[in-house]
Amino acid sequence: VKNLHDYVFGLYPRIQGKTWWMTEHLFNDGEKSDDPSAWEFQKWQYCLNHLGKEIHMCMEGYCSAYIYWYLKRFYGLMGDNDKRSPVDEGEIAKNGYIMAHYAQYATGTTRIKAVTNNTGICATAYINEAGNEVTVVLLNFTEATQCVEIPLAGTKRASAVETNENKNMEVISTEIPESGEGVYVLLSGNSITSIRLTL
What we know:
Elements: E1 21-25, H1 44-60, E2 65-68, H2 94-105, E3 110-112, E4 121-127, E5 133-140, E6 146-153, E7 157-163, E8 170-172, E9 174-175, E10 181-187, E11 191-198
Parallel strand pairs: 1-2
Antiparallel strand pairs: 3-4, 4-5, 5-11, 6-10, 7-8, 7-11, 9-10
């Protein structure tokens, strides 16, 4: 990765002919403390509840792009050589994996409406330009495993990856019913999952 723009993802079309970006934001609570237990930015729950929720809200509001500041920093997307870094220098941190769910699955798409009747789960959905692939990014803010149904008619294939405290973009199973009316997937507690459906 040569520059920050490699981590910017865009959604189209523009809303009412305009673009708007969320830029230069970060979450680094506890960074000035000498006590490692105060380094909130290292904790998965903090990352999901702050960065995960904020990106979701921006995408839900048709944000044109989201930029996290810094890229390579102990509270960023990638570890550095600071003693507070949760991962080794150059390795992807939890914030980086959260961003990757959107950067890999929402880039080059148009956001479409996604509705959930579970208050503990947030969802945004995206469709590609050809109209034959839909991605849904789900955040499970509950501690419980949740079985989610995405009722999308004409689903031929589905795949999913999940990030939680112990997984990083790990492939998880999906089940398409015989009717082809969508897909079922199990979301682990406190997780972010991207599901791609091919029509």
